[in-house]
Structures are given as C-alpha cells and as structure tokens.
C-alpha cells in the first residue's frame, strides 16, 4: 500500500474580503521529505502555512496533516507540527533556555523532560553558551535558530518553515540548511516556503511553484528545469536600449516561450532546443548592427522555470506576504 501523505491539501481556498490568497490549491507532501514552496511574496505561501498550522480556517476545500483535518481536529494537528517563520516568535524578556523550556511545557512535557530537551536543542543550535542570557541580547540569526530549535522540542513529525532564512547572513543560512537536511534524514517531514531559488534547489526533494494562490508547476528540480527547454541562450547587448529590438530578432529561436528581456541590463534569455542557436543569434544581431557584449548557453535554473511560468522573478512581487 502507498503510505498516506504527511500533508494533503485539496481545493484549498482562502479569501480576505475580495482578495483571493489561495485559489483552489492542491498539494501532497510525502512523509520524510522536504517539500519546497517557491514563489514571491503575495503568492499565497504564508496563507497556506497558516491554514496547515490551524491558525486560519480555509474558506473552502480541506487540508489534512498526518490524516488529521485542520478544521475538525485542530488540536491533533497542533500536537504533530512544529512551526517557525521569518520572524522569530520568542520572548525577549526570557533567556534562551527559558524560551525553549516554556515551549516544551506547552507540548505537555514534564519539567525534567523539558529541561533535558532544552539542553539538547541549545547545544544542537550552537546556543549553549548564550542559553542563560536574555534573548533581547541575541542577534537576529541567534533568535532565528532559537525559534527553530524551540519548534523541535516536542519532536514533531512535521515541521512548517515559512521563509526561515529570510534576511539571514550566508553563514547562518548555511547552518540552517544543514539542520533542515539533518531533520529530513531523521525522518521529519518539512514543508519549506522560500523565495530563494538556491534554497529550494539545495534542500527540497520536490518543489511547487506557487503563483496567485495556485500551484503553477510541481516536480523535482530536474523535472521543473526540463520544462524550460534543453538550454538557455543568454545574450547581453552592448547598449541596453537595443534590448527590445534584439529580442524581437531572436524571438523565433525560442522553444515555445517568448524571450525574457531585462531592459535595464540589456540581457535577453530564451529557452532553445538547438545547440547552434548561439551562432545564429550572433549572426542575426550582427547583420542588424546590434553589438553584443556577451553570449552564452547555460543549463536552465529554477529562476528560468519561475520566469517562464510567471513572467517575473521569484524575489519580485508585492511587499506584503499573503
């Protein structure tokens, strides 16, 4: 028998007045995997996390975590999940140790269990030396690690991470990536929302591109990249003002999609299926008197996938998350 999914969303819709944050979203996450939700702010990622965490009721559709309905069985769901987001939910007036122990007691651990687990977590996240300092003295990265650690004290089988590395320095981000990898190896299911293409590529076994409250595409990183084309032809014209004219000259070389043009830098990107496309691009632009600064064939990236599916980059979008 195929094991039941750790997370299942079917036709989930959530509106805020006339604003549609989730528009019939379907999602299935296998047990023991990292599933990446990739999309810009406003795509609906955070709203979905809040629905799965029982913080919001869906307007329509249903969602289940480890077989428990988020509306009908919210307590059962909460006992099986950990939640950490882009803003650390810690009490600045308490010490790091007190924060973690408090969450342990909320998970109904005994005092002794909460203290023992807090020691383990503070060691694991490199916070043992700062354990008895007030959190108000912690750096942003330390607070984020403390928040993630506290969410793990009850050993939940499912972790919901909502853009956990936003705003972190590269070193701290790498440390959190290693922790997420370790959680997966231990059998924890992780739903990770992110705007970072590298993060999704590095951590997730499966990725869904979210746009306007729906899943625009889903698959492994390799499968998603394969939808773009065999290769990406990247041309940068010497004069950015000529980018639109150059793109028009190259349009019929594209494998299905129109070229993506950056008028600020003069860069044109298009998926191609013919390895000779770069030579043809040079010939065409030269014949039209459009000087080229650079031309290159690249393997497609998740950025190319997102651009192809949505017409914008993953980091673009409105400022407020939905």
Q: How much is the average pLDDT?
A: 89
Task: Tell me the β content.
Answer: 25-35%
Q: What does the radius of gyration come to? A: 23 Å
Number of beta strands: 14
N-to-C series of helices and strands = EEEHEEHEHHHEHEHEEHEHEEHEH
Number of domains as seen in the coordinates? 2
Per CATH, the architecture of the largest domain is 3-Layer(aba) Sandwich
What topology emerges from the helices and strands here?
Elements: E1 7-16, E2 19-29, E3 34-38, H1 45-52, E4 60-65, E5 68-69, H2 74-78, E6 81-84, H3 96-106, H4 111-124, H5 140-151, E7 158-162, H6 170-185, E8 189-194, H7 197-203, E9 206-211, E10 214-219, H8 221-226, E11 231-237, H9 243-250, E12 260-262, E13 267-272, H10 277-287, E14 292-298, H11 302-310
Structure report:
The protein is α/β, with parallel strands linked by helices. It has two domains: 7-218, P-loop containing nucleotide triphosphate hydrolases (Rossmann fold); 229-299, YebC, transcriptional regulation domain (Alpha-Beta Plaits, 2-Layer Sandwich). The protein has eleven helices and 14 strands. The chain has helices spanning 45-52, 74-78, 96-106, 111-124, 140-151, 170-185, 197-203, 221-226, 243-250, 277-287, 302-310; strands spanning 7-16, 19-29, 34-38, 60-65, 68-69, 81-84, 158-162, 189-194, 206-211, 214-219, 231-237, 260-262, 267-272, 292-298. The strands form three sheets. It has a six-stranded mixed sheet, sandwiched between helices. Strands 2-1-4-5 form a four-stranded antiparallel sheet. A four-stranded antiparallel sheet has the order 12-13-11-14, with helices on both faces. Strand 7 (158-162), helix 6 (170-185) and strand 8 form a beta-alpha-beta unit. Helix 3 (96-106) packs across helix 4 (111-124) and helix 3 packs parallel to helix 5. The longest helix has 16 residues, at 170-185. The radius of gyration is 23 Å and the shape is elongated. Residues 317-322 have low confidence and may be disordered.
């Amino acid at each position: 028998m195929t094991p039941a999914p750790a997370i299942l969303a079917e036709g989930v819709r959530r509106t805020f007045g006339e604003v549609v944050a989730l528009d019939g979203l379907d999602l299935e996450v296998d047990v023991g995997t990292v599933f990446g939700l990739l999309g810009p702010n406003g795509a609906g990622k955070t709203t979905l996390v809040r629905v799965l965490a029982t913080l919001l009721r869906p307007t329509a559709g249903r969602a289940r975590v480890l077989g428990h309905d988020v509306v009908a069985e919210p307590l059962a769901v909460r006992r099986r999940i950990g939640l950490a987001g882009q803003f650390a939910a810690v009490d600045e007036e308490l010490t790091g140790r007190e924060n973690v122990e408090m969450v342990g007691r909320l998970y109904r651990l005994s005092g002794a269990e909460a203290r023992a687990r807090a020691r383990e977590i503070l060691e694991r996240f490199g916070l043992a030396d700062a354990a008895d300092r007030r959190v108000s003295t912690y750096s942003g990265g330390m607070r984020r690690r403390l928040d993630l650690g506290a969410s793990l004290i009850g050993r939940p089988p499912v972790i919901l991470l909502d853009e956990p590395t936003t705003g972190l320095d590269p070193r701290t981000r790498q440390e959190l990536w290693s922790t997420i990898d370790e959680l997966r190896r231990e059998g924890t299911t992780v739903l990770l929302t992110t705007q970072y293409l590298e993060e999704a590529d590095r951590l997730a076994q499966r990725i869904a591109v979210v746009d306007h409250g729906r899943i625009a595409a889903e698959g492994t990183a390799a499968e998603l990249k394969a939808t773009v084309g065999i290769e990406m032809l990247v041309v940068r014209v010497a004069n950015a003002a000529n980018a639109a004219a150059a793109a028009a000259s190259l349009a019929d070389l594209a494998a299905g999609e129109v070229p993506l043009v950056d008028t600020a830098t003069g860069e044109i990107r298009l998926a191609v299926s013919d390895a000779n496309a770069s030579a043809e691009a040079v010939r065409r632009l030269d014949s039209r008197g459009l000087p080229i600064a650079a031309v290159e064939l690249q393997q497609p990236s998740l950025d190319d996938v997102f651009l192809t599916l949505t017409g914008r980059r993953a980091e673009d979008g409105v400022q407020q998350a939905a």
